Amino acid sequence: MTTVSQPRVAAVTGAARGIGKSIALRLADDGLDVAVNDLHDQKELLEGVVEEIQKKGRRAVAVCGDASEEQDVKALIDKAVEELGGVDVMVANAGIGVSGSIMDLTVESWDRIMRINTRGPMLAYKYAAKQMVKQGRGGRIIGASSICGKKGVVNLGAYCASKFAVRGLTQSAARELGEHGITVNAYAPGVIRTQLTASPADGDKGHGSALLNLLGAPNARSAEPDVVSSLVSYLAKPEAHFITGQTITTDGGLVFD
To answer: d(Cα 197, Cα 193) in Å, to the nearest integer?
Structure first.
């Protein structure tokens, strides 16, 4: 695989807060302009992320929409091209987590998790790849898996299935897109301190104590979103051209490959 040119523009889904916001800000620090996406009810937070990126001296645009809906994902890519000049890095970060016994899992809940956590990355990969191939300058596609995509966890059956699927999608896309100078990788976080991992006992601090208990590791560590965004930062760089098809774990040692 040949080294691609310096990435210039990134698109990040689920970027209004948590890991997605951290990734968007880190990529801006790295010199990229960033198109950020999240749901319409997150518009105010998303516009705040745009302001933070602009204060760093980079261009940014907010594109509200559902990352699991085809037209909304296409609109994100089109807006990045129109406003920022292309797409060199795609980070399919948006996702949800729902816990509960497989015996109580409804079809509706299963479909919702699969729609957001699996169909969402597929659409991001699809439209980013089409644009990158059209541009002819390679690119970086990066998706959100999880340590729950590497090891089954009690009461997280649907979530685990969705994140295992991202690994398979990532490997297949890496095989297909390598000839175009496009790498495809995923990150597999452990317990990251965000609103998503907060339990009632944590309040809004998001220490993830309930999730650590589910993982059978109550004494394990959680971490801030920057442990993920720093990995994405590296994978987006030209020197990461020899890494593709990988789902890289950032979990403090909870799961070993």
So the answer is: 6
